[in-house]
Amino acid sequence: MAARRLNPEERAAWALIARTVRRAHKDEARGASAAAAPVDTPSPPAAPKRKASAALTTSAPARPVPPPPRRPVETLDSTWEKQIRRGALQPDIAIDLHGHSLAAAHARLDQVLAEARLAGARTLLIVTGKARKFAQNGDGRGRGAIRAEIGHWLEAGRHADAIASVRTAHPRHGGDGAIYVILRRKK
Description:
Elements: H1 8-20, H2 25-30, H3 54-57, H4 78-86, E1 93-96, H5 102-119, E2 123-127, H6 145-156, E3 163-168, E4 178-183
Parallel strand pairs: 1-2
Antiparallel strand pairs: 2-4, 3-4
């Protein structure tokens, strides 16, 4: 069966989706040879299906599907909300990522989250600095790079399932230049 080509509307939708995809770590190691194939390239024809032998069908059972990851919530209970709104929330741990490179900031964040979980801390204050969309520093990269990346780091990191909520800090703790990370209770 021949693969069909995408129509202009589908091609535009695909282009929008493709812009949101980030390259995986393995692909970065392979370099330029891992460039994506053009959208209109037809996929190779599927191999003909063969009957499975009895030995293959009685092999190891399928692995159970893990539960979907727990996502941070938009709002917490009223006590938390009042504390955040009034600036009365007292962080258990506070870190400042100013002056770190992206790699160093990511490593430091991961280390602090691991330590916080071991210590049973519930609230972290992470100072990232304010995001500035159009300001450029001397190396051509926009300022506020840590602030722009921290959401992705928290969402995709190994501690994502332990995060109950991520909120912008009260002005007393840095406002738009900082965030609260509220961890779930230990079970």
